[in-house]
Amino acid sequence: MLVVGSIHAGRGERAAGHIPIADSANHSVAMPVILLAGADKGPTLLVTAGIHGGEHSGTQAALQFAHTVDPSDLKGNIIVLPVMNPQAFSARQFGVCPIDGKNMNRIFPGCRSGTISERTAFWLLEEISPLLTHFVDLHGGDVGEALSPFAIWRPSGDTSVDRISQAMAEGFGLPAVVALNPRGQAWTGDGTLLAALGAQRIPGIVAEAGELGCPSVASVGFLYRGLQGTLGMLGMTRRQEHGATTFDKYTGLAIVPSPCDGIQRPVVAIGEAVEKGRVIAKICDLLGADCCTVYSPRPGTVLFQTVSLSIRRGEPLVGLGVVEVDEGMRSPARAPDAAQLQRMCGYVEDDLDAGPETGLEGAGPSSGGILCGRCRV
């Protein structure tokens, strides 16, 4: 039996429903949850999407995945949260929740007594993460954002976990893979779901595809095929999906923010390689008078960029895939192949029963407790 809140799925079954989350200001969320309990024991995979309300490719791929996988042929369990930020989704809101103005993917581990976004983040780590063995967090180009598909993994410091995360990223079938460096000079990913679950030693990745909030057939297909391939890599299904066999590899993601509000004029394009000091955007005020010129702080390749005319201070102009050299970054030079990964993720039946506290048979290791980001409980 797979149980999340009031939603129950017996072996070989699919179940769906909503979990209520509320804050002290009477704001509430009905969190959509889909459960697939496999006929046989195995890993438990979490698939999240829609943590940013305008990234619709991930939501569409997650729903398609949840309703096409046959739980009677599944080894293990799948938990799908297709719209992690329902208010932002309904409002077609770029980046943040319209209720509290927070970017949910920058506030993990959240807070038990915080705003609606903070409580949602806390709920996921408290109620969902103890059930998991692996995760995939789906993203895509938000409203006003162009993007070239890429996967992200983040070293946790645990070599066995990192080898699995790297293999999941490199096997997802996207044309670029970024390994974030938690100690690097580029973006570290702090406050993200990726970092929070990694800190609990749960292997997983972020997968990005899509642009301008449009769930195109191509972008949804990238993510859907990647999820199917992940099931095969983890030994959860017999079906094998094969994505790209070659990909560009980066060891950092440098996000260049806008220094001011105004109208932006992008100078570079998606996929373009830029040198340090290259002009990447020009910004003018609403009368057309030049405000500033923005230069690339380092060499890299443009993986995503804001293409809307309007830009606000602090919003990302571009995200660059970069290569950092850090001897202290302990990441495996080579990820295991699918057969090795299945052996690494192999489960002995006696180790699979999580006990009555979790409501889940087949769960993996849990963190043993959540530390709240603000109230520290």
Strand content: 25-35%
Distance between the termini: 29 Å
Percentage of residues in helical conformation = 10-25%
* SSE order, one letter for each helix or strand: EEEEEHEHHEEEHEHEHEEEEEEEEEH
Number of strands: 20
CATH class of the largest domain: Alpha Beta
Count of domains: 2
Classification by helices and strands: alpha+beta
Instruction: Output the number of helix runs.
Output: 7
| Sheet of most strands | 9 strands, mixed
**C-alpha-based Rg, rounded:** 20 Å
Q: Quick one: CATH superfamily of the largest domain?
A: Zn peptidases
- Uncertain ranges: 327-333, 346-377
Under CATH, the topology of the largest domain can be stated as Aminopeptidase
Could you say what the CATH architecture of the largest domain is?
3-Layer(aba) Sandwich
- Morphology: globular
The largest sheet has its strands arranged as 3-4-6-5-7-11-9-10-12
**Mean pLDDT over the full residue set:** 84
Commentary on this structure:
The protein is of the alpha+beta class. It folds into two domains: 2-250, Aminopeptidase, CATH 3.40.630.10; 254-322, RNA polymerase II/Efflux pump adaptor protein, barrel-sandwich hybrid domain (OB fold (Dihydrolipoamide Acetyltransferase, E2P)). The chain has helices at 56-68, 86-91, 116-128, 159-170, 193-199, 217-233, 338-344; strands spanning 2-4, 7-9, 13-22, 28-37, 40-48, 75-81, 134-139, 145-147, 150-153, 176-179, 204-208, 248-250, 252-257, 262-266, 273-274, 279-284, 290-295, 300-306, 310-311, 316-322. Helix 1 (56-68) crosses helix 6.
